[in-house]
Design brief:
four-stranded parallel beta sheet, binds phosphoric acid mono(formamide)ester, Rossmann fold, 313 residues, alpha/beta, binds norvaline
């Protein structure tokens, strides 16, 4: 009988809710799932996952759907355009109805409150598949990838360059949980939310790591082990694309910038990326890049997340 080390959690909404031990347990399970997928072929047999999407997705949709299949279950894709949410059915009713059919819900939404409300009213686990505020599945995968690359994450530094967005927030929440420091470099007006920075700093103090928000990319990258960036305009910000292109001039990850990082530094990006904007192709496709390992690891880490939350139900 599998006793989940995440017993006290119904949902995965934010990395901030997890302890260091819970993240470590997830990574150990993900490593096992990756090494021996055959052992988990029937782990979620007969279980089902509803996947609600208000926004586009390649990685999240495919990795959850394939992951659920590989665990013996079934995932069903629900575009918010096609289900009754799009015609005004409440989140509360949707959560209650879906809970009568499925064993878990994964949701990608604009408002963060949509996911927290789903979790509040659903009797089954809810997994945050990205909101405007957070992207925990991606950041957990990124730290799992760092652990694979370096053997151990303790004492390492991640430099995040660019928009203080959902990725920046989740990476700041994740760093202290895995013993890493996080330095974010963003232009004024595009810094991470102060309340998120404050919470992450509290965690960092307790963990003996650091969270810093600086202005110049060079300040963040110097000596860093992981250099991370994300698009200038996230989903839902398409109308701001031109303004943002100007605001983020100088926030491009170039080979010259990578040379100032640690000699063994890796480059990460959640993807999709825009070569020539936030990162040059010479970096995204160069010797530092682990972007496709990150993308693959979404599958293994999310299978472990589903096991943690759904094996106990
Ligand atoms: N990184 C990520 O979440 O990718 P998708 O938007 O393709 O799901
Ligand atoms: N910040 C990006 C991440 C995409 C995976 C967005 O929200 O569009």
């Amino acid at each position: 009988m599998f006793r989940s080390p995440w017993q006290r959690h119904k949902d995965l909404i934010s990395i901030h809710d997890l302890t260091t031990d819970e993240v470590e347990a997830l990574f150990q399970l993900a490593a096992n799932v990756k090494a021996r997928p055959d052992r988990y072929r029937t782990a979620l047999a007969g279980q089902t996952l509803a996947m609600i999407f208000e926004k586009s997705s390649t990685r999240t949709r495919v990795s959850f759907e394939v992951g659920m299949y590989q665990l013996g279950g079934l995932a069903t894709f629900l575009s918010s355009r096609d289900i009754q949410i799009g015609r005004g059915e409440t989140i509360e009713d949707t959560a209650k109805v879906l809970s009568r059919y499925v064993s878990g819900i994964m949701a990608r939404t604009f408002a963060h409150a949509t996911v927290t409300n789903l979790a509040k009213y659903a009797t089954v686990p809810v997994i945050n598949g990205l909101t405007d505020l957070l992207h925990p599945c991606q950041a957990l995968t990124d730290y799992f990838t760092a652990r694979e690359q370096f053997g151990n994450t303790k004492g390492l530094t991640l430099a995040y360059i660019g928009d203080g967005n959902n990725m920046a927030h989740s990476l700041m929440f994740g760093g202290p949980k895995v013993g890493m420091s996080v330095r974010v470099a963003s232009p004024e007006g595009y810094r991470p939310k102060p309340e998120i920075v404050e919470l992450a700093k509290q965690d960092a103090r307790a963990a003996g790591t650091a969270i810093e928000v600086v202005t110049r990319p060079e300040e963040a990258v110097r000596g860093a082990h992981v250099v991370y960036t994300d698009v200038f305009a996230s989903m839902g910000q398409e109308a701001e694309a031109q303004v943002r292109l100007k605001a983020f001039a100088g926030y491009q990850v170039t080979p010259e910038l990578m040379e100032t990082a640690d000699k063994d530094a890796v480059f990460m990006h959640c993807l999709p990326c825009h070569r020539g904007e936030e990162v040059l192709a010479d970096v995204a496709d160069g010797r530092w890049s682990v972007i496709f390992d990150e993308a693959e690891n979404r599958l293994h880490v999310q299978k472990a997340i589903m096991l943690m939350l759904m094996m106990q139900h």
